[in-house]
Here is the input.
Amino acid sequence: MDKIVECVPNFSEGRRPEVIAEIVKEIEAVEGTVMLDQEMDKDHNRAVVTFVGEPEVVLEAAFRAIKKASELIDMEKHTGEHPRMGATDVVPFIPVSGVTMAACVELAKRLGERVGTELEIPVYLYEEAASRPDRQNLADVRKGEYEGIKEDILVNPDRKPDYGPSRTHPTAGAIAIGARQFLVAFNVYLGTTNLDIAKNIANAIRFQTGGFRFVKAMGFEIKERRQVQVSMNLVNYKGTPIFRVYEAIKAEARRYGVPLVGSEVVGLTPLEAIVQVADYYLGLENFSMDQILESKLKSPKLAAKGSMKNFLEQVQSKEPTPGGGSVSALAGALAAALGEMVCRLTISRKAYEEVKEEFREIRRKLDALRIELTYLIEKDARSFDAVILAMKKPKYTDQEIEVRDKAIEEATKVAASVPLEVMEKTVQIMQYLPMIAEKGNINSVSDAGVANLMAKSAVEGASMNVRINLGGLKDKTFADNIKTKMTAMLKESEKLFEKTKSIVESKLG
Here is the structure.
């Protein structure tokens, strides 16, 4: 398969294996699908199925699975620990190989339209496919669960689905369909039956309540084990790795005098996510994925060269995206990568033993920032594509004009927010560069200098993309708030740039 998409539908059934078997049979009946995994949980009363295939194949298999689930699962009779709103609760598409996130968003929209029309199930687009900013987070979409949505959808205009009727299906409820990056489902078991402790810990680590940026967490009672569980979705395992949340949970549990008695990964997980854990706990020096035999056999360097070539060809094309915003994000990612390189070259030398631990931690933070900026390269392009799509909406009637104007306004806000995020991440990188230039391997000081220049380009380039999007906004309060943040980051980046530049110049001689 040249193009591979992963699909991970979640079904509200974890106690009747025969039901999931029927659904899986529908998926496998579509020629070209490859079933990777299926798991059921009795307490959650939920099943997670993972399969891959080419885009059109996966699209058809997903529809058949949803249709079969709507015939076999009755939400009026469903109970379980896990939040849910439909027989098929959520269906995400994940790009694996030869497929962009934008292509997965299109798959989500096509599936949503078909499910809404043919099965008459209300469909909410979420994550990267979300039609509105307030629908990106699955927890917000699913708020109230099946019982609450069943009533709210009838009276609340904000509950109007993206596709399908403004009422839940009599037995299948509603469904969320979207596109996202790889997600790691990670659970930690606590040696207690006190559910409040699990909920308090989940509250401390999840992003929604001030915790880690890429963590969604809840506390559950697992009656079968007579324990409680902190259940998590790590939506960006590179930005927030498994070991970091595990250590945070351990520290929080210690406050309550509760031990950690086990953990689990639900479904499939990228090898790199597990390697990160080994790297952290074993203190591996200068370890990379290239040292793993299976990774080497896949020729990642060749793949990377192809990806860079494709990106450059896309930039030089007549299409408006990817443009300056994506290039700015790339510049920031390159700054982080160079910083990481200097850290590795410092850690590996005995002469720098005193700063080894400090540089190891800086490397980890730069790694996370590099991954986030790499993701923003594509996100910037998608955000501008959304503006263009909004502009193409019909404008023949007053109502159509109003809908179009609102869509343009919302899309433009996102288009301004993405480069602001690029600035934020890059300024964080620049905060580490003076230390890297001052105490890092002297033979790599020029690399620290180039990282500094790339970071400066990223920040200033991103600021231009912020400004060009702010001009057309009607919401001046929003625009002024963004402009204030942008100006502050420009000033800070200039100070950091001059500081690092001075150090580099003094060492170059």
